[in-house]
Design brief:
Length: about 100
């Protein structure tokens, strides 16, 4: 659980502070606070701000969610995590290619 918090907080920090490929960051602290107040969820705030900034699209996000649920329903009962992850990403790639 602590590792998840560190990962999420680190991601938020990188998106605000910036990286080599996005030296000015993707959004500001103030923008993120507005989204946090609006959605009352860190994950939803991140997704919605990335959609608004056109880093991802609403349709792409919906396809990613659909691919997740499809894979959980169709994965063999004995499939391990790596197999499920690969199945999910392969399915998502197929979905995105049909845009």
């Amino acid at each position: 659980m602590c590792e998840d918090a560190a990962t999420l907080e680190g991601l938020i920090d990188l998106l605000i502070v910036g990286t080599k490929t996005h030296p000015n960051g993707i959004f500001t602290e103030d923008e993120f606070v507005v989204y946090m107040n609006r959605y009352q969820s860190v994950m939803t705030a991140l997704v919605m701000i990335l959609i608004e900034k056109e880093i991802i699209s609403q349709e792409e996000m919906e396809k990613a969610i659909s691919a997740y649920h499809f894979t959980i329903r169709t994965a063999p009962p004995n499939a391990n995590g790596v197999t499920i992850l690969n199945m999910r990403r392969d399915h998502l790639k197929e979905m995105l290619e049909t845009e």
